Amino acid sequence: MSWKNIFRKGKEIKSETQYVADKYKPATNATDALKNIARSLEEIDVMLDENPEMEKELMERLKNEKSSSKRSKKKTVKPSRKKSLKSRLKELKELYDDDLITEQEYERKRQNLIDSV
Question: What is the DSSP string of 54-102?
């Protein structure tokens, strides 16, 4: 069974039960959106329970997609987002001024930052 058939079957089930239109109102906030997603997942679960052959095919497709994505996944190197020395020293000074670190800690960290250049 193809993905189109699976989703067509889902649409048929929805059209047969008109309560869905009343139950799914456009989400106006994140909570409503999550509720709609949860309801959709519950309906999919029921649909799969009623159609074991569809569930079996979906599981096979998921296994195939996982195995193919693992093979084709390339590691990407993200550029470093290090702060400038000036900004790190300012941040350190703010911590000291706010009494969040001691004078000894401030001096030690400041010297470490300067030595790292």
Answer: HHHHHHHHHHHHHHHHHHH----PPPP-PPPHHHHHHHHHHHHHTTSS-
Cβ-based neighbour number of residue 28 at 10 Å: 8
Name the amino acid, one letter, at 18.
Q
Neighbours of 14 (CB within 10 A): 16
Cβ atoms of residues 91 and 84 within 8 Å: no
Whether 34 and 28 have beta carbons less than 8 Å apart is answered as no
Give residue limits of the domains in the chain. 3-72, 85-115
The alpha carbon of residue 88 and the mean position of all alpha carbons in its chain are separated, in whole angstroms, by 30
Question: Which contacts qualify for 106-111: CB closer than 8 Å, 24 or more apart?
Answer: none
d(CA 94, CA 19): 58
pLDDT tens for each residue of 17-75: 555 555 556 777 888 878 878 888 888 888 888 888 888 888 888 888 877 665 555 55
Does the pTM surpass 0.90? The reply is no
